[in-house]
Amino acid sequence: LAAASASSPSPLTFPEPIQPVQSPTSIESEVARLLELGQRREAEQHYPEAAAAYREALAVRPGDDEIRTRLARVLSWHGGQEEAASLYRDVLARHPDDQETRAALARVLSWQRRFDEARELYGLVLQADPKNVEVRRGLAEVAHWQGNRAEALARYEALVAETRDPESERRLQAVRSELL
Fold this sequence. Notes:
Radius of gyration: 25 Å
Order of helices and strands: HHHHHHHHHH
Protein backbone atom coordinates (compact mmCIF):
# COMPACT_ATOMS: atom_id res chain seq x y z
CA LEU A 1 0.00 0.00 0.00
CA ALA A 2 2.86 2.37 0.73
CA ALA A 3 4.34 1.75 -2.73
CA ALA A 4 1.01 2.49 -4.41
CA SER A 5 0.53 5.76 -2.58
CA ALA A 6 4.07 6.92 -3.40
CA SER A 7 3.47 6.60 -7.15
CA SER A 8 -0.01 8.16 -7.28
CA PRO A 9 -0.40 11.88 -6.81
CA SER A 10 -1.86 13.16 -3.60
CA PRO A 11 -5.37 14.56 -3.87
CA LEU A 12 -4.03 18.06 -3.05
CA THR A 13 -1.44 18.19 -5.85
CA PHE A 14 -2.40 19.86 -9.13
CA PRO A 15 -0.46 19.14 -12.32
CA GLU A 16 -1.19 22.65 -13.71
CA PRO A 17 -1.82 25.90 -11.89
CA ILE A 18 -5.48 26.79 -11.59
CA GLN A 19 -6.33 29.90 -13.58
CA PRO A 20 -8.96 32.18 -12.12
CA VAL A 21 -12.08 32.33 -14.25
CA GLN A 22 -12.80 35.82 -15.48
CA SER A 23 -16.31 37.02 -14.99
CA PRO A 24 -18.20 38.34 -18.02
CA THR A 25 -18.02 41.80 -16.46
CA SER A 26 -14.22 41.70 -16.17
CA ILE A 27 -13.92 40.41 -19.74
CA GLU A 28 -16.10 43.23 -21.04
CA SER A 29 -14.17 45.81 -19.04
CA GLU A 30 -10.91 44.46 -20.49
CA VAL A 31 -12.30 44.67 -24.03
CA ALA A 32 -13.53 48.21 -23.34
CA ARG A 33 -10.07 49.16 -22.02
CA LEU A 34 -8.38 47.71 -25.11
CA LEU A 35 -10.80 49.44 -27.48
CA GLU A 36 -10.27 52.76 -25.72
CA LEU A 37 -6.50 52.27 -25.91
CA GLY A 38 -6.75 51.40 -29.61
CA GLN A 39 -8.87 54.48 -30.31
CA ARG A 40 -6.45 56.71 -28.41
CA ARG A 41 -3.42 55.29 -30.26
CA GLU A 42 -5.28 55.60 -33.56
CA ALA A 43 -6.09 59.27 -32.86
CA GLU A 44 -2.41 59.84 -32.02
CA GLN A 45 -1.51 58.13 -35.33
CA HIS A 46 0.40 55.40 -33.50
CA TYR A 47 -1.02 52.75 -35.78
CA PRO A 48 1.14 49.77 -34.76
CA GLU A 49 0.14 50.30 -31.11
CA ALA A 50 -3.52 50.72 -32.10
CA ALA A 51 -3.34 47.51 -34.12
CA ALA A 52 -1.80 45.68 -31.15
CA ALA A 53 -4.63 46.83 -28.86
CA TYR A 54 -7.28 45.82 -31.40
CA ARG A 55 -5.59 42.44 -31.93
CA GLU A 56 -5.67 41.81 -28.21
CA ALA A 57 -9.34 42.79 -28.02
CA LEU A 58 -10.11 40.52 -30.97
CA ALA A 59 -8.35 37.64 -29.21
CA VAL A 60 -10.73 38.12 -26.28
CA ARG A 61 -13.78 38.51 -28.53
CA PRO A 62 -12.89 36.71 -31.78
CA GLY A 63 -16.36 37.00 -33.29
CA ASP A 64 -16.58 40.79 -32.97
CA ASP A 65 -16.66 42.30 -36.45
CA GLU A 66 -16.55 45.86 -35.12
CA ILE A 67 -13.13 45.11 -33.62
CA ARG A 68 -12.11 43.28 -36.82
CA THR A 69 -13.06 46.36 -38.86
CA ARG A 70 -11.10 48.69 -36.57
CA LEU A 71 -8.05 46.46 -36.87
CA ALA A 72 -8.40 46.35 -40.66
CA ARG A 73 -8.63 50.14 -40.81
CA VAL A 74 -5.41 50.78 -38.88
CA LEU A 75 -3.56 47.99 -40.70
CA SER A 76 -4.51 49.54 -44.03
CA TRP A 77 -2.97 52.83 -42.93
CA HIS A 78 0.45 51.49 -42.04
CA GLY A 79 1.35 48.90 -44.62
CA GLY A 80 -0.83 45.96 -43.65
CA GLN A 81 -3.09 46.18 -46.69
CA GLU A 82 -3.08 42.44 -47.42
CA GLU A 83 -4.21 41.54 -43.90
CA ALA A 84 -6.66 44.45 -43.89
CA ALA A 85 -8.23 43.18 -47.11
CA SER A 86 -8.54 39.71 -45.59
CA LEU A 87 -10.21 41.08 -42.46
CA TYR A 88 -12.64 43.18 -44.50
CA ARG A 89 -13.49 40.10 -46.60
CA ASP A 90 -14.18 38.16 -43.38
CA VAL A 91 -16.62 40.86 -42.25
CA LEU A 92 -18.32 40.93 -45.67
CA ALA A 93 -18.74 37.16 -45.61
CA ARG A 94 -20.91 37.56 -42.50
CA HIS A 95 -22.47 40.92 -43.43
CA PRO A 96 -22.82 40.94 -47.24
CA ASP A 97 -24.92 44.13 -47.23
CA ASP A 98 -22.35 46.18 -45.28
CA GLN A 99 -21.61 48.87 -47.85
CA GLU A 100 -19.22 50.78 -45.59
CA THR A 101 -17.00 47.71 -45.26
CA ARG A 102 -17.28 47.05 -49.01
CA ALA A 103 -16.11 50.62 -49.70
CA ALA A 104 -13.22 50.22 -47.24
CA LEU A 105 -12.16 47.00 -48.97
CA ALA A 106 -12.36 48.73 -52.37
CA ARG A 107 -10.13 51.53 -51.05
CA VAL A 108 -7.53 49.03 -49.78
CA LEU A 109 -7.61 47.13 -53.07
CA SER A 110 -7.06 50.36 -54.99
CA TRP A 111 -4.03 51.13 -52.80
CA GLN A 112 -2.75 47.67 -53.73
CA ARG A 113 -3.23 48.58 -57.41
CA ARG A 114 -5.90 45.89 -57.76
CA PHE A 115 -7.98 48.32 -59.75
CA ASP A 116 -10.45 45.95 -61.40
CA GLU A 117 -11.50 44.49 -58.05
CA ALA A 118 -11.67 47.95 -56.48
CA ARG A 119 -13.75 49.31 -59.35
CA GLU A 120 -16.17 46.36 -59.09
CA LEU A 121 -16.66 46.83 -55.35
CA TYR A 122 -17.04 50.60 -55.65
CA GLY A 123 -19.64 49.95 -58.35
CA LEU A 124 -21.64 47.70 -56.02
CA VAL A 125 -21.63 50.34 -53.30
CA LEU A 126 -22.63 53.00 -55.80
CA GLN A 127 -25.62 50.90 -56.86
CA ALA A 128 -26.80 50.87 -53.24
CA ASP A 129 -25.90 54.52 -52.57
CA PRO A 130 -25.49 56.59 -55.77
CA LYS A 131 -24.67 59.79 -53.88
CA ASN A 132 -21.84 58.33 -51.78
CA VAL A 133 -19.09 60.95 -52.13
CA GLU A 134 -16.30 58.73 -50.81
CA VAL A 135 -17.12 55.98 -53.30
CA ARG A 136 -17.47 58.38 -56.22
CA ARG A 137 -14.12 59.91 -55.29
CA GLY A 138 -12.67 56.39 -55.05
CA LEU A 139 -13.79 55.62 -58.60
CA ALA A 140 -12.21 58.86 -59.81
CA GLU A 141 -8.96 57.95 -58.04
CA VAL A 142 -8.94 54.49 -59.62
CA ALA A 143 -9.42 56.06 -63.06
CA HIS A 144 -6.62 58.53 -62.34
CA TRP A 145 -4.22 55.86 -61.05
CA GLN A 146 -4.95 53.72 -64.09
CA GLY A 147 -3.93 56.64 -66.29
CA ASN A 148 -7.45 57.37 -67.54
CA ARG A 149 -7.25 61.12 -66.97
CA ALA A 150 -10.37 61.89 -69.03
CA GLU A 151 -12.55 59.61 -66.90
CA ALA A 152 -10.96 60.90 -63.69
CA LEU A 153 -11.54 64.50 -64.82
CA ALA A 154 -15.21 63.81 -65.64
CA ARG A 155 -15.79 62.05 -62.31
CA TYR A 156 -14.12 64.82 -60.29
CA GLU A 157 -15.95 67.56 -62.21
CA ALA A 158 -19.32 65.89 -61.53
CA LEU A 159 -18.47 65.48 -57.85
CA VAL A 160 -17.39 69.10 -57.45
CA ALA A 161 -20.44 70.39 -59.33
CA GLU A 162 -22.81 68.40 -57.12
CA THR A 163 -21.11 68.52 -53.74
CA ARG A 164 -18.50 71.28 -53.60
CA ASP A 165 -16.36 68.66 -51.83
CA PRO A 166 -13.02 70.40 -51.08
CA GLU A 167 -10.97 67.20 -51.42
CA SER A 168 -12.51 66.50 -54.82
CA GLU A 169 -11.83 70.10 -55.87
CA ARG A 170 -8.17 69.71 -54.91
CA ARG A 171 -7.88 66.46 -56.86
CA LEU A 172 -9.71 67.94 -59.83
CA GLN A 173 -7.11 70.71 -60.01
CA ALA A 174 -4.32 68.12 -59.85
CA VAL A 175 -5.79 66.13 -62.76
CA ARG A 176 -6.33 69.33 -64.78
CA SER A 177 -2.70 70.35 -64.25
CA GLU A 178 -1.57 66.93 -65.50
CA LEU A 179 -3.60 67.37 -68.68
CA LEU A 180 -1.98 70.70 -69.54
